[in-house]
Design goal:
9 helices, Alpha/beta knot, 245 residues
């Protein structure tokens, strides 16, 4: 049976145990065998067990985490589902359409698909923890979806687009890890802090850089090269500081 075997679904604070059970059932329908839940543990609630039906084992094996940061710590990539697109100038919500998500099976590491709360979804801070945010195409008059329905739509797309095909072997070039990306972010942030631009623009510039790397799926070697270049730029700035007028 073909599976999305490097995909982990993460549910952030589902509002009811029954919704967690329904989601577990849907997750099993599409060949995903890893589930994580942020917040209270619903696994032993009767509604969760009843609604999970034959996905009871998946529900029982779900990992429970106190926050999203810890839930994605060991993931190579994290993709956040959100219905809130913001305005065109909002760099923190540059969304990728669902149909443009890449094939997770071609990535060597684990990929987390993150779903938010049924009422308010994911917070902006939680979205920023992820490498990219994507949206499901729905009628603008009613963009909010039931949790298990949203999970079903996303996994159906990934399964029908990629899983039935013969699995593509990852290339020899390994994808950049979260730790490797964090190093280049750190150096870039230091460069931005040294630039003579208005203070309110600095966090925007930093976030744009994160957005670009999050959507580019760079290899470890590429990130290592970029880190070296960014570090050299920072060193030259330190060697040749601007003279104060």
């Amino acid at each position: 049976m073909t599976k999305l075997d490097n995909v982990t679904v993460i549910l952030v604070e589902p509002k009811s145990p029954g919704n967690a059970g329904f989601a577990a059932r849907v997750i099993s329908n599409f060949g995903v065998n890893r589930l994580r839940i942020v917040g209270e543990d619903p696994r032993h609630e009767s509604q969760a067990q009843i609604f999970s039906v034959h996905a009871h084992d998946l529900l029982e094996s779900a990992g429970i985490f106190p926050d999203l940061s810890s839930a994605i710590q060991d993931m190579h990539a994290a993709w956040a589902a959100t219905a809130r697109s913001g305005r065109n100038h909002s760099v923190t919500r540059a969304l990728v359409p669902l149909e443009k998500l890449p094939n997770p099976l071609t990535m060597e590491g684990n990929v987390a698909i993150v779903f938010g709360r049924e009422d308010i979804g994911l917070t902006n801070e939680e979205i920023l923890l992820c490498d990219l945010a994507f949206t499901i195409p729905v009628a603008p008059s009613y963009p909010s979806m039931n949790l298990s329905h949203a999970v079903a739509v996303v996994l159906y797309h990934l399964y029908s687009a990629y899983a039935p095909e013969e699995r593509k072997e990852p290339t020899e070039a390994k994808p950049a890890t979260r730790k490797e990306r964090e190093i280049v972010y750190k150096f870039f942030d230091e460069i931005v802090d040294r630039l003579t631009i208005k203070d309110f623009r600095k966090p925007i510039a930093k976030q744009v850089f994160r957005n670009l790397l999050g959507r580019s799926y760079m290899t470890g070697r590429e990130v290592m090269t970029l880190t070296g270049v960014v570090r050299k730029v920072m060193e030259q700035i330190d060697e040749n500081p601007e003279k104060e007028e």
